[in-house]
Amino acid sequence: MALTGIEIYKHLPKTNCKACGFPTCLAFAMKLAQKGAELSACPDVSEEAKQALDAASRPPIRLVSIGGNGKKIEVGNEVVMFRHEKTFYHAPGFVVRIKDSDPAEAISKRVKEVTNYKVERVGMELNLDGFAIDNVSANEAAFLKAVEVVSSQSTLPLVLMSQDPAVMEAALKKTASAKPLIYAAKEDNAQVMAELARKYQCPLAVYGPGGLDQLAGVVEEVTNTGVEDVVLDPGARGFAESVTTLTQLRRLALKKNFRLLGYPIITFPGEGVTSVEEEALMAGQQVAKYGGIIVLDHLEPAMVYPLLTLRMGLYTDPQKPIQVSSAVYPIGEPKATSPLLVTTNFSLTYFSVAGEIESGGFPSWLLVVDTEGLSVLTAWAAGKFDAEKIAKAVNAQNAVEHIEHRSLVIPGNVAVLRGELEEELSGWKIVVGPRDAVDIGSFLRQNWKVN
Length: 451
Fold this sequence. Notes:
The protein is an alpha/beta fold and about 450 residues long. The chain contains 16 helices and 17 strands. Helix 8 (about 210-225) links the parallel strand 9 (about 205) and strand 10.
């Protein structure tokens, strides 16, 4: 039976040393009760307390980290089945498969493409996360060459894929400091792969295509050797099989507290499909249900960008909209005679308005009002984007320092605020702009006059 935060607190040292990352032992206890922290974070907990609290405090899905020299992929430590229940915490990592049978020039080109790939969405930079190097040649020299090419050109995390433990160890001798994921332990090689994971202190993937009983059996075998960081591959490759199996794993970990399957999952969306389009659909399904490391076989911009956007959307806190800071932003190269527009600090609203101003070719100043991340109409309906708040933002952000006129363009959807704003901002002229951001450029070209 799960312990409450108060019950857990009774076993803690009560020193409030903050070494665990929380301000007090009580706060740490509450987080333990929510499965949002691990007891090992407390440096002073007694052995007696560890025995009493280990089962109660361990997160249902272990947090596993891959990578050591640069960017890391951290997956696991999730506590809910559905995002709206609370939030998802650790976004899945997208890694691109590199086949060691490809020429070194092709591998080098792919590494550069993955490493340099980046797109911007609502002010956030989205990237790919690593490489899965596959020993498809079954040749040690070819595998080591591929590993060398990738490692010499990128510090992104690695997944090393080989069926041969000897080949795997040869690669680990060169890459152990980068903490790659070893793929994979199976029924016939579990002991030797587990030994490699312990020896080189790297996480280990466990492959069990014969069903969840088989998968749990191999996990038990490798964890009994002392391996703690495990990633699961249940072998599910088709659309229906994947969503069913991954949901079962999540439910067993969260609802049944089945420790042997309480680990993040690695998926291969390209293996169960026949086209790039189907791979994109499968990968999208696995972002939502419940992939931890997603190995892509293709690097098509039309496929990758939607996947990164989907991941960003699902792995933001649904109770905390993405926001930008309240400020006056120059869009283009505005002058003192340029327009001053106002909008809310909901990130998508800001970037939509800013993008239309920029593409419209009419440099302007954009005043962003703190509406706690709400869009224009939502914020207005909630009383967070009214005349008083807009006027306060004009004064607080010293908007007059940027302009020599006293005109403010408000969104057309809140035209009702015009009279109230003219009362709040004495001497200002309030201009009602278009209802839709797409019309801002043409509106300014036709209507803007300095008063």
